[in-house]
Amino acid sequence: MLPLMLGRVRKARTWDLGCLQEILKSFTERCSQCAAVSWGLTDEGKYYCTSCHNVTDRSEEVVSTAVITNTKINSISRGLRKRSKHEKGWDWYVCEGFQCILYHQAEALKTLGVGAELKNEVLHNLWKRYLQKSKQAYCKNPVRTRGRKAKVLGDNLQSSDCASELELLSDTTLESGAEFQSDPQIPKPFPLVKASPKSEAADVCSGSVDGVEYSEWKEKGVLKMTVPRTLALCYLSLLWQRETITLSDLLRFVEEDRIPYVNAFQLFPEEMKVYGRDKGIFAVESWPDYEDIYKNMIEVAIFLDLPRFPDVTEDCYLHPNILCMKYLLELNLPEMHSLTCQVVKMTGIGEVDFLTFDPIAKKKRTVKYDVQAVAVIVVVLKLLFLLDDKLEWSYSSLAEAYNEEHREDEPQFDFRKWYQVMKKTFDEKRQKWEEARAKYSWKTKRPIYRSHIDKSVMYKRREMVEHLQKQFSALVGSTPVAEKKDPSSFQFNWTEGDTGSPCFHGHSLQGLLRTKGQSLITKNSLYWLSTQKFCKSYCKHVTTYEESNFSLSYQFILSIFSFLLRIKTSILHEEVSLIEKKLFEKKYNESKKRSRPKKVRRH
Amino acid sequence: MSDFDEELTKLALAEDGKRETSVFSNPGMHFPWLQERIETVVTGGKKKRDFAQTTSACLSFIQEALLKHQWQQAAEYMHSYLQTLEDSDTYKRQNAPEVIWKLGSEILFYHPKSNVETFNNFADRMKNIGVLNYLKISLQHALYLIHHGKLEDANRNLSDAETWRYGEKSSSQEVLINLVQAYKGLLQYHTWSKKKTELSEIDKDDYAYTSETGNSGNQSCRTSTSICALLKTPGVWDPFVKSYVEMLEFCEDRDGAREILTNYAYDEKFPSNPNAHIYLYEFLKREKAPRAKLISVLKILHEIVPSHPLMLEFHTLLRKSDTEEHQKLGLSVLFEFLDFAGCTKNITAWKYLAKCLKQTLMEGHLVWVEEEWMSRRSWWPTFHFSFFWAKSDWKADADLACEKAFVVGILLGKGCRYFRYIVKQDHETLKKKIKRMKKCVKKYSIVNPGVCT
């Protein structure tokens, strides 16, 4: 199971509340002011009425020493008194919230077919390591507000029914021991940048115990957890496990609502109230962005000080050779795997050292496996067809003529036909995608209000929206909602006959290649570069992708390929440029010395 | 090159077209990246929330569906668009109810599955989201009910809206409250006038008649208070004014009616409104007001709408007047009336003009005619008197052609083709008339014969 602190904390609390409730139940007199029978205990052990806050003279001599000696009870009863005004719920911490989100994300990944070790071992350890590194738990002096969390952990370890969990916690990769012992010291609160006195103003509040402090917590060198970073953690663990899910797949699953992300807080148990400052922490009104999650992933990896990841070898899904094969199928292209492999080999992007993520050695960058594989395909298409809005069409005419004459043979790949099919299919797909996005419902049944004043308004508004929605859905009628397809890393299936779109997988590249000695080479001997010049070092200038500078075929290919990955075209273009740099730099430098031709001759 | 290459180029052109229409680029100069930059500046460097992006996409889908009358699809998108009521952007959230009301009421008005009940439900909900839209929605709701013949419900609705108060917010919406009251008044007028027609069928000596007239008197009093307030605010309130005046006249409150109409026509704060003058003129005519007064009212109308049918009446009024000034104006009223394409076949106007020209010239005011003709010399011949018109006028209405021929004879001389064509026609009944006309033209034509074509 995932780190079970959450479960443990809750168990402890229900037990505490149980005791408390028993004590309170025994006192059944009516309140002298409002005649209600609803009592709470004050810190001093006196009864107070929860409906009118009248404090009685009668105090409770608690028999159970186990309860009275436990400081936790005090804080809970304090919590009760303070919170009863607004929301009754558990005391919970922000990191517990994130843990809950991670838990559900890991569960979702498991249902998507990812091995159970990912959740039980990898993600669990990463999360523990995160808590440790950010000094929130599993360390000597955890930063804590009104320090309770660490204690809860300690207390629970002593209860016998947590034995199984204990096993989990005595993880060998983490230094065990000190952090689990009941800590007599009072843990430090979150070091705030400006030591603001805990404001009791009505508009500064949070459902979590430390939401306000957490949102103001700024400490150098500490990477605060955010919802996008939970995804980064998920991806790190997928990468560690070398699972067959790329980052773009992961993000697509998020967008398809298969992995909790937007409004993930609605998966919190009912008793975990989310409001006030929690909104800034947990509410997300955007889908994850590829670049953003990628950046976060590297940041998190560096922060966690992770060692080199397991090697990405040729038999791994993430290896460009395999990914290229996958994307060739997805993009309805014929067998050009040997060509992609050749490009991969020549550029050296298939090397283990290049592919394997090593946060310590290769700071600030790793391979975008999916984007890279697609970029390789773009390069291969450029090698074959030049994509200058001329050559590809004349080759198409040749292929068309050939296919007319040789109806019985294996058809030659006709770029024009492929373009027509892909354009139509992708336009439809994109249209559907846009419509689905426009219909996306961002708001949940649990509105998050910023302050208690807003609460009733927010709930009323919610109710109103639901009512109106009901009215309009009655008008929509019984159009069958397109049932959710099973999750797949493939978005297109061309081999199925019923789609009506021809499949190009079996077409040959015969008309595009010629034999030269022993080997086959491309008929087209020209190539144009996506950048005007190669930079000395890794620089950003390649990122500006001005569409109008490029041929229409190239634009089309970039646009459908990047839609497949749901990334910006400029990112793919950048990746193409990087591969071209690797492929041609030597040649380019040589030819530059001789003259300055615009087009680089290949071979 | 094959057609397929063209397809690609077409595609590119379409894309270009799209770019050119964007706000930030002038034709011939476009920066695709600029739009993005500007957007990030607007959002303070932060990426636009996908929430904002999808809801605005949703809005355009709704608009598209409405445009194509796809009510079902529109309702589907509306279902998602409702979440803008919960937008965390305060400004957008405050604007959401109005947008939703406008879209939603449109959908519910046309949707085949929608009915009055659904609409009522929706309107009642929307009224109570925020306070600013209450009156507007109530009013539109009432109009919807009126449209569906539910007058009583509409009345009840308006009564509710009338008594609605919300501190300062209601005082800022005074016009709306007045409008609500006025519509209520209009509904009262409707019942009153229905009763009136019923009464006109009953015998006057009948017992029922006297009691009913008393009732309708009361009703008009109530109506007056409802409509009166609105009529004090500048605006175009034609139906209200018309019905209100009708009721006042019925109660023999002529002074009241006159005051209302005069105010409506002459108050400078009100926008210029031809109907205001028409109502006043018609009222004064019913009252048998002196000619001078009638002329003064129509003079203003003439300035606003020189092509109004009442201008012919205006002309006869002016002809009856003795002053030279009015005589001259009478002539120019006709000329101006005929300047408009919609009036070219108005036989009365041509008849009047023929008569007026003849008389004016007989009285020796050649200058007046020349003055009017000066500015029209260049275009009237082709506009009214082309050979084509001669043929078609004669075919359609020989009388009209005759009148026109007379006018053209006077203005352009007997040599012009229109005139020659009409004169050439051999017609039994019109023979005499044409002969007379020829004589007249010879005598009065303002041009020397032979000069014109």
Number of helical runs of chain A? 21
Strand order, largest beta sheet of chain A: 1-2-3
Shape, per Cα inertia axes of chain A = globular
DSSP helical segment count of chain B: 24
Anisotropy-based shape of chain B: elongated
Helical amount of chain B: over 70%
State the CATH topology of the domain at 131-289 in chain B: Serine Threonine Protein Phosphatase 5, Tetratricopeptide repeat
- Approximate helicity band of chain A: 40-55%
**End-to-end separation of chain A:** 56 Å
Number of E-state strands of chain B: 0
Quote the beta fraction of chain B. under 5%
Helix and strand pattern of chain B = HHHHHHHHHHHHHHHHHHHHHHHH
Low-confidence parts of chain A, pLDDT < 50 over ≥5 residues?
Answer: 1-20, 59-84, 145-188, 192-200, 596-603
Radius of gyration of chain B: 32 Å
For the biggest sheet of chain A, the summary is:
3 strands, antiparallel
Oligomerization status of the protein chains: heterodimer
- Tell me the radius of gyration of chain A: 30 Å
What's the pLDDT, averaged over the residues of chain B? 80
The ordered H/E elements of chain A are: HEEEHHHHHHHHHHHHHHHHHHEEHH
Subcellular location (chain B): Nucleus, Nucleolus
InterPro entries (chain B): RNA_pol_I_TAF1A/TAFI48_chr, SL1/TIF-IB_Component, TAF1A
Keywords (chain B): DNA-binding, Nucleus, Transcription, Transcription regulation
Organism (chain B): Cricetulus griseus (Chinese hamster)
What are the key terms here?
heterodimer; A: 603 residues; mainly alpha; three-stranded antiparallel sheet; two-stranded antiparallel sheet; 48% helix; disordered N terminus; disordered C terminus; B: 453 residues; Serine Threonine Protein Phosphatase 5, Tetratricopeptide repeat; 24 helices; elongated
Can you give a write-up of this model?
- The complex is a heterodimer of chains A (603) and B (453).
- Chain A is mostly helical and 603 residues long.
- Chain A has 21 helices and 5 strands.
- In chain A, the strands form 2 sheets. In chain A, strands 1-2-3 form a 3-stranded antiparallel sheet, sandwiched between helices. Chain A has a two-stranded antiparallel sheet with strand order 4-5.
- In chain A, helix 4 (94-111) runs antiparallel to helix 5 and helix 14 (337-347) packs across helix 16.
- By secondary structure, chain B is an all-alpha fold.
- The longest helix of chain B is centred in the middle third of the chain and has 27 residues, at 174-200.
- Mean pLDDT of chain B is 80; it is low at 1-30, 39-45 and 449-453.
- Chains A and B meet through helix 17, helix 18, helix 19 and helix 20 of A and helix 1, helix 3, helix 4, helix 5 and helix 6 of B.
